[in-house]
Predict the structure.
Amino acid sequence: MELKERDLLEIDFNKTKSYGNKILLLNTSVSNPWAIINVSEKGIIEYLKKRVTFKEINDKFKNYERQSLKDFLTYLYDSGILKVSGNSKFGNKLSIDRSFTSVVIKVTKLCNLKCLYCYSPKEIGNEVSIMDYGTLRKIIVSFEDIQSNLPKFILHGGEPLLRFDYIEKIYKELNKGSLKNRIDFNIQSNGTIMPTKVLKFLKNNQPNVSFGFSMDGYPEINDKIRLEGKDIGPSSQILKNLKSLQKNKIFPGVLVVLSSKNLHHIEEIFDFFIEHGITSFSTLPFFPSGRGKQQTELSIKPQDYFVAMQKLFYKIYKHNLKNKKRAMERTISTLLRHILTPFRDYMCMRMPCGAGLNTLAFDCNGDVYPCDDFLGQDKFLLGNIRESNLHKILSNSKPQIAPLTERSFSSVGCKDCAWQGICGGGCPGTNLAFYNTLNHKDYFCEFKKKFINFLFELIANEKIDMSVLYAQ
Ligand code: SF4
Ligand code: SF4
C-alpha cells in the first residue's frame, strides 16, 4: 500500500494490553486484528484517533523521519487495525464457509474396549447399536443434493473397524461416477484392530481415506484409562498396529483426552509420542458426558490445564527447533493461527460454532443431530434420515438449531473479553455437560484467557519465533 498525502487514516481498536514497554492494540471483531507498538509510539496512536490525513500526521510528527512514519502506518494497516481512506486490510467481517465441512457418523456403538469416560450415551451392545448399509449410503449421497463439495465423513463408534467390511463395501460402491474421488472418509478408531485388509484399504485410498486413533499416553497410563474389560491393556496392540501403519506410510493423527490421570505427565507423553513417530496429535480436556458422568474424579482444573499446555508448548517448540519433521498439537496451533492470521477454519473455536452449520452427526438408527456432542439428546434431534430426506430435515430444523446459532459472546458472558475473536467463546456441548445449559461461560475459560495472554506476551517480547510452531 502506498500512502498518499490526502489519505484519511482511521485507527480501529477497542482493547489494549501492556506487556512491559510494548502495548497490544486489539480489535475484538471476528477477524481479531491486532498490532503491537512501543510505548513511545502511543502519541501517534492518540493522534490517529482524531481521523487525520497522512499529511496532517506527517506535519504533526515532524521529528519522525517520513519513511519511518510511513513504515509504522503501513504496519498498522497490514495488521488490520488502520483503515486508509476507508479501506481495511481484512474488511469488516470474515467470510466463514457456511457449508457442511465434516459430518460424524456412528457406524456402530459396539466396541472392544471399555474406556472409563466413553462419551457413548447408551449402553453398548443394544439392538440399535449398528447402522445399516442403506442408512449409511443415504447419508453420503444426501449431501450431493445440498452442496457442491461433500463434507469429510468421520466414521465413529464404538469402534468403527468392527464394521470394516461394510465401510470398505460402501466406499467401493460409491467411489465411482459423479462421486469418484469426492468421498472423504476419516476413520476414528481405538487403534487396536489392524488386520492386513484394513492396512491395504487405508494405504490404497490415501488421502481420501484417513485414519486417526485415541491414545491417552504411554502404556502405564493408557491401559488404566482405556480398559479392555480384561487385565491386559490395549497399548501393546496399538503400538504394534502403529508400526504397521507407519511401515505403509500411513501417519495417523492421535487424540489424547486429558484427564487427572495423564495431565501431569504431558511432557513424558510428548516424548513417548515422538519416540514412536507420532508428531501430529490433538488434546481434548475430559468433560463429563456419557459413561464419563460417573467419573468426576477424571476432571481437570483449568489452571492445571494451562500449566500443562504451557509445558507442552515449550516441548513442541524445542522439538521443532531441532527437527525437520515438526510436531503439532491442535489446540496450540489453532490458537496461534487465530492470533497470527484472520482465518477461522476450525469450527469449534468461533462464535457461533459449527454445530448445525458446518457439522451434523448421525446416530446408528439414522437420527440426525447438530453435532455429535448432542447425540441422544431429544431436544436436539433434527429428524431421521431413514424417514425423511436431508433437505427436509434441515429445512425444519430451525427450532433445534437456533439455540446454538443464536449464541453470542453476550449470551455466554464473554462480551468484554479481549480474546473473544481468538477463543470463540467455548463449546455449547461442553457447557451442557458441565452446567446443563448452552449459555454459560466456558468451563475452561481461565485456561484460554491465560494461554492466549501467554502467547501474546511471547510475541510482544519477541521471545520466540512463532512460525516454528506450525507443522510443515
Ligand atoms: S458443539 Fe462443541 S464440538 Fe460441536 S461444533 Fe460446537 S464447539 Fe464444536
Ligand atoms: S471463554 Fe473466556 S477467554 Fe474465551 S472469549 Fe469467553 S471470556 Fe474470553
